[in-house]
Each structure stands twice: as structure tokens, then as C-alpha cells.
Amino acid sequence: xxxxxxxxxxxxxxxxxxxxxxxxxxxxxxxxxxxxxxxxxxxxxxxxxxxxxxxxxxxxxxxxxxxxxxxxxxxxxxxxxxxxxxxxxxxxxxxxxxxxxxxxxxxxxxxxxxxxxxxxxxxxxxxxxxxxxxxxxxxxxxxxxxxxxxxxxxxxxxxxxxxxxxxxxxxxxxxxxxxxxxxxxxxxxxxxxxxxxxxxxxxxxxxxxxxx
Length: 212
Known about the structure:
By secondary structure, the chain is α+β, with helices and mostly antiparallel strands. It is 37% helix and 27% strand.
């Protein structure tokens, strides 16, 4: 499933197909090999990365993602396992953009804030679209030694688009102060969003279908 969203990702990212399962496994294996090479000494690291990528992609596919990306390296020398899923949510009529993109984004922001009192929701307009950003810090279960997970969902409502889209970024908070830096980065990515026309979407779909 292709979307008309065009955007720029900083650093190096790996697009992972969401189906069929064999394509997901092959893509994860190719990424692990490209990152860690073929050395037997790094076999455990390759296996861990394959598992991380396939698990994340499977979760995104079950959640209805249309596209999925895994960050290889955002800043040289400082790897951050960030992922990006792009979604096409089904919204009730009262939250659709029929009332205008700004009103729809404001309604989305109010709904998202009401679902979780700890969520930080902001809303703005850029170019021909409005954006509602929902930021949450997902803490691990008691006894789990994994770091908290930062999730930033950007609900994008185009003034001339019949469909609302969500760009959902997530990354573990592995050191202090990382969250603010990552939000600056994801805000910058969303600021590059443009709408592709139908022919561009078809061309991109063919190109992606031929890629790993």
C-alpha cells in the first residue's frame, strides 16, 4: 500500500517491506549483513538485529502500517535504533477533514489529549496541511530492564487530501537528554512533508517493489 506522503529522512535509513513474511526476513538479514558484515565473531549481533527488525516490522504490519523504516545511522558515530511507521487510520466523521484541516487537527489533538493525561499534544499548520503531534514516554513493566520508549505520532491532515496520515516515530531513551534531540529531528522530518501526485505514487511504488 503506497501513500502520497513525500518526506526527507536524515542520515541512513532502511525501508523494510511489511509483507510477505519471507520478504521481511530477507530484508532484515540483508540489513544485518550490511551493518555487521559476515564475520563469525559478529554473528550474535547480526542475529539480534535481525530479530529486532523483524519484530518491529511485524508489530507495524499488525497495527496497519502502510510503510516502515529502520534507522541505520542518524548521526555519525551515534547509532539510535529509531523506527518510523506510516499509517492510514480510519477516523470517525467528526474528526475528518471535511470541516477543514485546521479544525480536524484541533479535534484530533483534543481527542488524543483526552486519551492519556500524560501525553503531550501540540498542533500547528504548515504549507497546505495541519499537524497534531502526540508525544508519549512508554515505560517498561516493573522488573524489565529495557529503557523507556519515546513515541511521537504526527497526525497529518491535508487541506485537499481525503485521507489523514500518521507518521509514528519511536526510539529507546538510552541516555539523558536524548528525547528532546529526537523530537527536534522528527519535527524537522515532518516539516519536509509534501504531497505526491498519483503518477509519482505509482512510480515510487514500482521502485520500492523492485528494491530490497
